[in-house]
Amino acid sequence: MTAERPILIRNARLLTMADGSDETSGDVLIADGMIQAVGGRIDHPDAKIVDAAGGILMPGFVDTHRHVWQTQLRSVAADWSLFDYFVRMRMIYSAFYAPDDVWLGNHIGALEALHAGVTTMVDHCHILNSPDHADAALKGLIDAGGRGVFCYGLFGNPRGHDPLVAEIAPDWLAADIRRLRAGTDFSGQDRILFGMAPAEAEATPLPHLLGELHLARELGAHSISLHVAMGGYDQGHRVVQQLADAGALGPDLLFVHGAALTAAEQSAIAEAGAGLSVTPETEMQMGMGHPLAFIAQAAGIRTGLGIDIVSNYAGDMFRQMRLMLQAERARRNAALEARGGAPRQITPTAREVLRMATLGGAEALHLEDRIGSIAPGKRADLILVRTDTINMCPTIDAVAAIVLNAAPSDIDMVMVDGRVLKRDGALTGIDWPDLAGRLQASAMRITAAADRVDRGPIEAMAAPLFANLT
Ligand SMILES: [Zn+2]
Fold first, then answer.
1. Is the pLDDT of residue 166 over 70?
2. Engineering a disulfide at 401: which of 62, 68, 395, 419 sits with its beta carbon 3.0 to 4.6 angstroms away?
């Protein structure tokens, strides 16, 4: 096998996202899937030249939290609360997913992420109704070609299409995660890392949760993804405090949401080196509190952004960056207004939120030595954004344009490990009409089956878990 030719990207406007750097220019040389050299004029006798004149070259986005399997349920959840989501998504729709549906959702969801410039993604995968579902979910990610962490979910979905027979964390899942970990799926590639998503922490007795964390660590999980401290839904569980008291915090933990984290819990997370994934759109829609990202970052927490439920939100980071930026500005401005003042200076800046969506996400996953910025020695996970489209022209300030103007359709090229997965604005090597037809058929079958379920008994079962609904 001959080595792939090096790639030399010329004439781009560079946003390296290295701390302290602003927009710059210069060439980027890529070989063996790695960034070899950055900046100035680079010459290489064998390299394939990519002329990126007029484009913005930057690291791919890092989405620290997504339930990729929900791709074919796009747009069902526009007006849902968390209670609706629990009853309808977790207890009903999930029961009707067959393994092939999971492959389609995960594969096409992973392709959608790549199309949108998300080169690394954490899949918090709680659609594992059988071992075949688990294999299909993982295969869907690997087949797409992006980087990420597959977090095997231990939540017991309803089986046999009877939502009332769900168990929170059935024993077979703990056995199956061992099977999957011991299999060959993670060997021979380091793009998709192994992780775990324990059963819902706030509905699980502490000894059981500690047992799941022990299992994750025994199996060498890179990340352990946990939903916690969900604003108004938090009923004093203080899961993070309990884990801290039990000595169970560690850098492998990735907490998600977290708006109701106490100051002591935030300090404990920072001290442990654990990560936090803030999902602005979910927090704002579902009453989970003010999205904590900038507050958590100020507390010293490794903080990234996440997209969460693609059954409701678009699968790109542009919108999440905008929501987070303006929500935080609104919070700070409102605090001044409450004291009779008005802002002289607007904070945080667009650059700060762009960092959070790239290098910040990499830090939350402890992958900053590999991804998150353009620097020699890092993997070549890069995106090239056009500035000559009708919504990007003229781009006077590259950072501002990426945060406030850009859309997935502006992304000309996406590269992971030096492999080009999107070029000239289109994903490479896929048969989209075929995939789209299969996804549509899957969606029709699942939604038709779900529509026949009487939600009344399930809502009655779920109500005690949501004691403070008003
Ligand atoms: Zn989630």
1. no
2. 395
Rounded-to-integer distance, Cα 8 and Cα 14, Å: 14
Number of structural domains (the chain) is 2
For residue 307, the CA-to-ligand 1 centroid distance in Å is 9
Residue 24 neighbours by CB under 8 Å, 6+ apart: 13, 14, 16, 39
Domain carrying residue 72: 61-338
CA of 374 to the centre of ligand 1 (A): 29
CATH of residue 139's domain is 3.20.20.140
Is residue 14 a contact partner of residue 24, using CB atoms and an 8 Å limit?
Answer: yes
Mean per-residue pLDDT for 14-39? Answer: 94
Sequential DSSP letters for 136-201: HHHHHHHHHT-EEEEEEE------TT-GGG--SS-HHHHHHHHHHHHSSTTTT--SEEEEEEPSPG
Is 12 in the same domain as 26? yes
Locate 383 and state its tokens. 């995106």
Based on the fold, state whether residues 189 and 324 are members of the same structural domain. Answer: yes
432: in domain: no
For residues 130 and 214, state if they share a domain.
Answer: yes
Q: For residue 243, is pLDDT > 80?
A: yes
Query: Cα of 66 to ligand 1 centre, how many Å?
Result: 6
Domain identity same for 334 and 215: yes
- Is 15 within a domain? yes
CA of 3 to the centre of ligand 1 (A): 40
Instruction: With H, G, I as helix, E, B as strand and everything else as coil, classify residue 28.
Output: strand
Question: With 70 as the cut, is the pLDDT of residue 433 above it?
Answer: yes
170 is a domain residue: yes
The answer on 72 and 53 residing in a single domain is: no
Together in a domain, 275 and 320: yes
pLDDT tens readout for residues 178-206: 999 988 556 556 899 999 999 988 888 99
Looking at the structure, do residues 296 and 421 belong to the same domain, yes or no? Answer: no
Ligand 1 mean position, distance from CA 360 (Å): 19
| pLDDT of res. 147 | 97
Ligand 1 centroid from CA 309, angstroms:
7
* 174-183 contacts, C-beta under 8 A, 24 or more apart: 174/212, 174/215, 176/128, 176/131, 176/134, 177/134, 177/152, 177/215, 177/219, 178/219, 179/131, 180/131, 180/134, 180/135, 180/138, 180/152, 181/152, 181/219, 181/220
> CB of 277 within 8 A of CB of 292?
no
Residues linked to residue 34 through DSSP beta bridges, in sequence order: 31, 379
Question: Do 257 and 172 share a structural domain?
Answer: yes
Compute the distance from residue 94 Cα to the ligand 1 centre, in Å. 14
C-alpha 308 – ligand 1 centre gap (Å):
5
